[in-house]
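To: structure desk
From: M.T.
Subject: fold request, one chain
Message: Could you run this one when you get a chance? Sequence is below, nothing fancy, just the single chain.
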Amino acid sequence: MSTKINWRQIKDVEELKKLATDAEGYDVDYAIMLVHGAYSRKGVQYEPEENLFWVYNHIDDSEQLLTEEQLFDTDYTNVGDAIKKGHFFVDSDQINWEIG
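Reply: Done. Structure tokens follow.
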């Protein structure tokens, strides 16, 4: 039995920063939407003091610490590219929309 996820599109990096700064951001599911309903799960946390993004890639348990420039560089990750193309989403049931 599967559980339906209520995905909400992340419109820009500023929205991601607000949502991923939340202390519970480590437990929030983000996803790059692929074809036919498939998606690539990510964990994202933003550290405003250092202006760095921590990205956890569920597919291979790898972690990355990225600058904003690297977040939008496909040599590092596809997160920024997915944001620009409208393909980056967050599980809306897991976040506090008052900060978003």
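Reply (cont.): Helices lie at 13-21, 68-71, 79-85. Let me know if you need anything else for the meeting.
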